[in-house]
Specification:
Strand order of the largest sheet: 1-2
Shape: globular
Number of helices: 6
Strand content: 5-15%
Length: about 120
């Protein structure tokens, strides 16, 4: 069987339980070193070469606000919030909104709580 045939007929992902466990065991300090200042994990928006990593994080989250038509005062649910970058961004932008963030791995939760000590909201 060729590699291409194997890709066409094989599973989309293999051994996902072990992969997820290993992925979430990576210490928070690693991500602080490689991600931008907002700790945005999934993607950023670089519309030209001069955009920094931090600016790319903000541009991407601003696009979410536009697309989802988020306004101050709404109840917002952030499922799979990861490091909480979007939740924290929303809390800064929309102080009258109720933001509910749901995540799984405890290592990220501990880092998120450390970051929140500088702010007025709670987990």
């Amino acid at each position: 069987m060729s590699v291409i045939d194997g890709l066409k007929t094989g599973p989309i992902a293999e051994n996902t339980i072990d992969a997820n466990e290993q992925h979430y065991e990576v210490p928070g300090d690693y991500f602080k070193a490689v991600l931008g200042p907002k700790l945005k994990y999934s993607c950023c928006w670089f519309d030209d070469e001069s955009v920094s990593l931090g600016e790319g994080e903000i541009k991407m989250m601003e696009s979410y606000l536009e697309r989802a038509k988020i306004e101050d005062g709404q109840m917002i649910l952030d499922l799979g919030c990861g490091w909480g970058s979007l939740s924290l961004f929303l809390a800064e932008r929309f102080p009258n909104s109720a933001i509910y963030s749901v995540r799984t791995p405890m290592t990220r939760l501990n880092t998120l709580k450390t970051l929140q000590k500088r702010r007025t909201w709670r987990t």
